[in-house]
Amino acid sequence: MTAWIIGSKCGMEERLSSPNPRTYIGSGKVSEIKSAIHALDVETVIFDDELSPGQLRNLEKAFGGDVRVCDRTALILDIFNQRAATHEAALQVALALMEYQLPRLTRMWTHLERQAGGQVKGMGEKQIEVDKRILRTQIGVLKKELDSVRKHRKQYRNRRTSVPVPVVSLVGYTNAGKSTLLNRLTGANVLAEDRLFATLDPTTRRVQIKNGKEFLLTDTVGFIQKLPTMLVAAFRATLEEISESSLLVHVVDISHPLAEQQIEAVDNVLSELDVSSIPKLMVWNKVDKAKDPQKIKLEVERREDVVCISALTGEGLEEFCDAVQDKVKDSMVWVEALVPFNKGELLSTIHQVGMVEKTEYMENGTLVKAHVPLRFARMLTPMRQLHIS
């Protein structure tokens, strides 16, 4: 199949002060594309922007034949649909697809008008209303199922927080190397391929570093520029994993020529999720593929908020774990607690999830001075906690 892409360096571009309300592009460009379609035997024309139902219908009529016009949202939804490997991902993609299709159902019935003119128009309208009611019903069912998924996830997170290990979420542009990083640190064997949206479901694994400390690392769905709003809404249950994190690690493919634009796209999606209060760590990945790795490393040395790694080769992972530990420490609280001698497992947990500065053996137990997660500090209250600041 041959596809012709509009709004891309590999296809056609047009400069307009504003999109044409009927066809998005100007009439001259419509004619130009129509000529190219016949000359190149094009079957699909893809627009790198979202088109209205009317624009899609008018363009397909103008191009004629069996040429399909696809906008950016439809293409992304199609890719997501191919990547959905679990029941939850399939539900999320199906909901987004149905919400996208609902205002576009009229395109399915234009053949009735061609077959019998105005005599069938009323029948077509009735059938469209029936289809819309069916689709709305299906949307309602899917939303209820996803609400159930959200509740299940919340219960899972509540169980997970009962063991107060810091949760670190990997966020970033699609194909930035998040899954490869998770696999390298945990041996999780998560699907990691050089393709868009290879991961649609969050995967959480435990990471233990050399000093014995540990944290939970979560791989999340990749972002993209102009991510369709309906996808953000449909994946809300998945993205809620991010909001429960102790730290967000923004993974960037620093070898990509559009790395800065990708960083901005991720920041825009994160702003929609209201996670500004969660500490962040920037990670420049794929330094081994960059044109000038040494220049990038020198830039990182001048910055305190960036770590340079190669998830594929393992370069910089020790520095990454140290940076994660330092950032997580910033989100902890200082405690001085007296732990009774018969609560040895509690003392062990403090050493495991916190950062102990000093221990002192007293007559009634062990006095611990440490940074610990806030929720764990609250658990120490019954243990005759002395001070929290």
From TrEMBL:
Gene3D superfamilies: 6.10.250.2860, GTPase HflX, N-terminal domain (3.40.50.11060), P-loop containing nucleotide triphosphate hydrolases (3.40.50.300). Its cofactor is Mg(2+). Residues 166-332 form the Hflx-type G domain. It holds the Pfam family GTP-bdg_M. Transmembrane segments: none annotated. Keywords: Cytoplasm, GTP-binding, Magnesium, Metal-binding, Nucleotide-binding. GTP binds at residues 172-179, 197-201, 219-222, 285-288, 310-312. One of its GO terms (molecular function) is metal ion binding. Mg(2+) binds at residues 179, 199. The keyword Metal-binding applies. One of its GO terms (cellular component) is cytoplasm. It is found in: Cytoplasm. NCBIfam families: GTP_HflX, small_GTP. This is Hflx-type G domain-containing protein.
